[in-house]
Amino acid sequence: MIPNQFSYVRAESIDEAIRLLHESNGEGKLLAGGHSLIPLMKFRLTTPSTLIDIGHLSELRGVRKAENRLVIGALTTHREVHSHPLVQEHLPVLAKAAGQIGDLQVRNRGTIGGNLAHADPAADLPAVALALDAMLEIQGEDGAEIASVDGFFLGPLVTALPDTSILTSVSFLIPPAHAKSTYLKYAHPASGYAVVGVCAIAAKDPDGAVEFIRIAINGVADVAYHCVAVEQKLQGQLPTEETIREAALLAAEDGEIGSDHFASEEYRRHLCSVYTERALRDLLL
Amino acid sequence: MAKKVEVSVTVNGKAYSAEVEPRMLLVHFLRETLNLTGTHIGCDTSQCGACTVMVNGEAVKSCTMLAVQAAGCQVTTVEGLGEVGNLHPIQQSFWEKHGLQCGFCTPGVMIASIGLLQQNPNPSEEEIRDALEGVICRCTGYQFIVEAVKHAAQLMAVDETETGNALQIGEGR
User: Fold this and answer.
1) Based on the structure, what is the number of domains in chain A?
2) For B52, which of A2, A7, A105 is closest by C-beta distance?
3) What's the CATH code of the domain at A20?
């Protein structure tokens, strides 16, 4: 399969890329690793008139610690995220999720910024980004701004990112040092995408009660969502098999659960509860 | 027609330059422009891995990369691994351990295996199976492929002790 025709330009800087986006009148697309965009273009589900290649801009790559956050450049590949010592030390759940994306070849090319900007609801990073309170640095014609990932995903493949802006980095909150975390995924057997993917982070206080809990889910709904109902149910509680089971039954409450030929809405709701319960048992019992 | 773009790329140690349409995929550039037909097209949807080549030392699926993205890069295809009488350890191992049946997937599997061995010279069986998730063998000869990769790791370890540079590929051998 061959994409529709387009013109190609390599941007030499972030500013140049923003200018080229502006000049393309909404018909241009940024090309990073290309592992979300090129498949769409081959199916001709998208036909941009211009590709603006930012894949070689080294200033958009890398991981650094800034106070209680890790800041990851948008062009950092999934393999780099998965294997980076700072990520493994401070955000093991992000390392784990990044290591489950696609396969080795895909992880060598796909980027964290591209993944989030592409906003596939069955991707593995949106839930992790929500659970770790990710903040997105977005550069546009009027300078840089920081936006929360909460509210960034508007629908399947649709985000709040303006047409003439670039997602340049994403920062993740480092959870309390005694917190445990996991990403549990039921992968579609053919595509490997998440039918359900649960990211959970939790910590107990010295008395054994839940003092920190963050849960988010991707795969089952039109957009990844934050499981507020489960968190509220467990916050401050002493976790037992029973309280965890009851809380996990609320895992589908905050999402608009979808349905397709592979997995019905009822089945997806069931998967949400089962995977959330397994995740919470891993972390809290 | 969209304006053609000049692409200069080093493939198997040899420099090439060509004017290509921006939409040309790297796999088509290798097969049709450079006539390096060892790299195969299987699914064409980044699933099967038959098109896997090495770009700047990393295994990638060349059906999901534009030729223009490879400009300035070092690419290694199966043609760059070894030759009759001087096989690369991975080729030697696939031969000795029967790591192929029909052979269609083999170029991609060998390159993906080298990608693994460069990152992890002594992988466990589980690590080999994980790393080869992105290649599909429709003859289902996975057991022999895993044995071939294990054997290659041993050959490369010996080679490295003797020469100190067993993993050097991509600059031509």
Assistant:
1) 3
2) A105
3) 3.30.43.10
